[in-house]
Amino acid sequence: MRTSSVKVLSAVVAVLASVLLGFSTATAAPAPTTLYAVPQLAAIPSCDLSSLPGEASDTLDLIHSGGPFPYDQDGTVFQNREGILPDESSGTPCYHEYTVKTPGSPDRGARRLIGGGTTTDPAFVYYTADHYASFCIVDENA
């Protein structure tokens, strides 16, 4: 009788110890997973060069010929502070901005072409009519 009491007492002590010390013979549930929302860039619409103001085509011709440009800021690095355009893949600046003249404007106006890549042969060109609030990617062949 004494042996069975010792076995029962040993079992009770083991269960209490495991509960108090946090040990378990059962399989632990996996830790909860935290999901993070990763911001995605909005798709930038395309626009045909022929649908843009004629001055955009004139500016693009100047870009391809290397200038001369009417404004000192033309050809300078565009820093994409608004974060609307895709991040530059390399560590070197690849965006350059160019003014699209706005007839009747006393200053440079709001219209720009942003070239990605080399200054005279950009791999892609974006147009903004509202000073960087929105863009479209220019299809030069349409």
TrEMBL record:
One of its GO terms (molecular function) is ribonuclease T1 activity. Residues 1-28 form the signal peptide. It comes from the Bacteria. The keyword Nuclease applies. Gene3D superfamilies: Microbial ribonucleases. InterPro entries: N1-like, Ribonuclease/ribotoxin. Keywords: Hydrolase, Lyase, Nuclease, Signal. The keyword DNA-binding does not apply. This is Ribonuclease T1.
